[in-house]
Specification:
Length: 151
């Protein structure tokens, strides 16, 4: 992987698991994870599982300092409730990523989902930021179809 700074998300049980990926690449890449701060996502470097604390919506979040050099982020792997083949994303309704994605103007964005989350069409507005690519993980299980954390 050519990217040096990668934004990921610390997955919940109903999302494609990112935990092993985070641990595997943390020694070779700067891995950033989002932290919920009010109505926005703050980015922080992942420095190990021992530096994670349960945050909003029961998501493990890094406890270190904020990372604000958005231009340095080469790759962003983004969760969603659904994606379409045109790169449109449907979130969980709170707009956290809707507010973050415009800051990642030159970052390559990959939506990560289960095959059952890839749909024909998602309604999108002019201000919505499309993914450059959408990747599908393993098939859905009933538990993965029912998650709800308002992300």
């Amino acid at each position: 992987m050519a990217a040096h700074t990668v934004l990921l998300y610390h997955s919940l049980p109903d999302e494609v698991d990112t935990h092993d990926f985070i641990r595997r690449w943390a020694g070779q890449k700067r891995i950033l994870l989002p932290v919920v701060r009010g109505e926005d996502l703050e980015l922080r470097p992942y420095t190990g599982d021992n530096c994670l604390a349960e945050g909003a919506f029961h998501i493990d979040e890094p406890t270190g300092p904020a990372f604000t050099d958005y231009a340095a982020i080469d790759l962003a792997i983004i969760p969603g409730v659904a994606f379409d083949r045109q790169g449109n994303r449907l979130g969980r309704g709170k707009g956290y990523y809707d507010r973050l994605l415009p800051r990642l103007e030159n970052t390559y964005k990959i939506g990560l989902c289960f095959p059952c989350q890839l749909v024909d069409r998602i309604p999108a507005e002019a201000h919505d930021v499309k993914m450059d690519e959408v990747l599908c993980g393993q098939p859905c299980t009933p538990q993965e179809k029912t998650g709800n954390d308002n992300r």
